[in-house]
TrEMBL record:
Keyword Kinase: no
The entry's keywords: Membrane, Transmembrane, Transmembrane helix
Pfam families referenced in this protein's UniProt entry, alphabetically: Sugar_tr (PF00083)
Localisation: Membrane
Domain Major facilitator superfamily (MFS) profile: 1-368
Coiled-coil spans in chain: none
Protein name listed in UniProt: Major facilitator superfamily (MFS) profile domain-containing protein
Xref: InterPro entries: MFS_dom, MFS_sugar_transport-like, MFS_trans_sf, Sugar_transporter_CS
Gene Ontology MF terms in the entry: transmembrane transporter activity
Protein source organism: Cherax quadricarinatus
C-alpha cells in the first residue's frame, strides 16, 4: 500500500486499528458469551478471525485492509477470552490457577511460531493467511467441546449440565456423587467432582437467570466495592498492554537478527508463565501481581539509561521486562476471572481486556 515517507504513519495505524478491534470485541463478544454461551463466543470469534485475516490478505486497498484488521482483532481477543473463561469454569477451585496460567503457554508458542513462519514466508499477504486461516478449523471444535457447566447451571439448564458432568465422569472413570446432580441441590458441581457453595452461586442455582439479571458493563461500576476493583484491574491491564505490546513492537530495534529477537522475546513468556504459577498461591494474587509488575517496570526503566555500546545489556533488560510484564498480564487475567461471578464473568473479563487495548492502541506509535 506504499506506506512510505509521508504515509509511513499508516503502518502503526493499522496495528492500532487491530487493537481497537480487540477493544470492541472484548466487550461485545464477552457479552455474547454471557448471553448465549461460551461455545457461541468461540464460534463467532473463530469465524471473525478467519474471515478478517484471509480477506485482509487480498484487500484491494488500504481502507478494506483496515476494516479487516479491525474484524481480525475482534475475533482474536474474543477467541482468547472465551477460551480462558470456558477453561477456568470447567475445573474445580484447586485447578483454576493452573488452568488460567497453563492456557497462556500455547499463546506464547503461537506468537513464536509466527516469527518462524515469517522466516520462510516473506510475502506479508501469504503470512497473514498462514496465521489466520487455521481459525476456520476451530469451528469444528464447537461440535466436540461441551458447554460450560457453570454457565448452564447459571441459566437454570440443569439437565444439560447433568449430562455433561456424567459424560466427563464416565470418560475419566470417576463416579460423580449423586447428590451433586440433585435438582434441589444448592452446590454447583464441577467436572473434577468438587463443588462450590458461594452465596452468589447458590443464588444462581436456586433461581433461573432472568433477562433482567443479565449483567452489563454498567453493573461492574454500580457498587463502590465492585467499582474500585474494576477500576484497579482496568489500570493494571492498560499498563500491562502498553508495555507488553510496546516491547513486542520494539523487538526489531534491539539490534541483531529481527526474526531471532522476535522469536526469543515471545518464547521468554513461557518461563514467565511457569514462574507465575509457582508464585500465585504462595504470594497471593495481589502480592504476585505487584512483584512481577515492579520487576517488568524497573527493567524497562533501567534499560533507558544504558549508555551506547552496551546493546547486549539493553537486550537482557528488555527480555527481563517482557518476562515480568507477561507474568503480570497472565496473573491479572487469572485474577479477573476470579473476582467476577459466573453471571457476568465474560463481561467482566471482556471489560478488563477492553481497557488493556487502550494501552495496546498507543503502543505501536510509541514504539515507532
Amino acid at each position: 500500500f506504499n506506506l512510505t515517507c509521508d504515509r509511513s504513519w499508516l503502518g502503526p495505524l493499522a496495528v492500532s486499528v487491530y487493537m481497537t478491534g480487540m477493544l470492541v470485541g472484548a466487550v461485545t463478544i464477552g457479552d455474547l458469551a454471557d448471553r448465549f454461551g461460551r461455545k457461541i463466543g468461540i464460534l463467532v470469534s473463530a469465524l471473525l478471525l478467519g474471515f478478517g485475516g484471509v480477506v485482509s490478505a487480498v484487500s484491494p486497498n488500504y481502507y478494506i485492509f483496515l476494516l479487516m484488521r479491525f474484524l481480525t482483532g475482534a475475533g482474536s481477543i474474543g477467541l482468547f477470552q472465551s477460551s480462558v473463561v470456558l477453561a477456568v469454569e470447567f475445573v474445580g477451585t484447586k485447578w483454576r490457577t493452573f488452568t488460567g496460567i497453563i492456557i497462556e503457554i500455547p499463546f506464547a508458542l503461537g506468537e513464536a511460531m509466527t516469527g518462524v513462519l515469517a522466516v520462510f514466508i516473506r510475502d506479508w499477504r501469504w503470512l497473514i493467511v498462514a496465521v489466520t486461516a487455521p481459525a476456520f478449523l476451530l469451528v469444528s471444535y464447537t461440535w466436540l467441546m461441551p458447554e460450560s457447566v457453570r454457565w448452564l447451571m447459571a441459566q437454570g439448564r440443569r439437565g444439560e449440565a447433568r449430562k455433561i458432568i456424567e459424560t466427563v465422569g464416565r470418560v475419566n472413570n470417576v463416579e460423580v456423587p449423586r447428590h451433586l446432580l440433585d435438582d434441589h441441590n444448592v452446590e454447583v458441581p464441577t467436572t473434577d467432582g468438587t463443588s462450590s457453595v458461594s452465596a452468589s452461586q447458590i443464588e444462581l442455582v436456586n433461581e433461573p437467570l432472568h433477562k433482567d439479571k443479565i449483567k452489563t458493563l454498567v453493573d461492574l461500576l454500580r457498587t463502590p466495592k465492585t467499582r474500585m476493583r474494576t477500576c484497579i484491574m482496568f489500570f493494571f491491564l492498560s499498563v500491562c498492554a502498553l508495555v507488553y505490546y510496546g516491547l513486542s513492537s520494539n523487538s526489531g530495534s534491539l539490534g541483531g537478527n529481527i526474526f531471532v529477537n522476535f522469536i526469543v522475546i515471545m518464547l521468554i513468556e513461557i518461563p514467565s508463565y511457569i514462574f507465575s504459577f509457582f508464585i500465585l498461591d504462595r504470594m497471593g494474587r495481589k502480592g504476585s501481581l505487584s512483584f512481577v509488575f515492579l520487576l517488568g517496570g524497573f527493567s524497562c526503566l533501567i534499560s533507558g539509561f544504558i549508555p551506547e555500546g552496551y546493546d547486549w545489556l539493553v537486550v537482557v533488560l528488555s527480555m527481563l521486562g517482557k518476562f515480568g510484564i507477561a507474568a503480570a498480564f497472565a496473573i491479572a487475567f487469572v485474577y479477573s476471572t476470579e473476582i467476577f461471578p459466573t453471571e457476568y464473568r465474560s463481561v467482566g473479563v471482556g471489560a478488563c481486556s477492553m481497557c488493556s487495548r487502550l494501552g495496546g492502541i498507543l503502543a505501536p506509535f510509541i514504539a515507532s
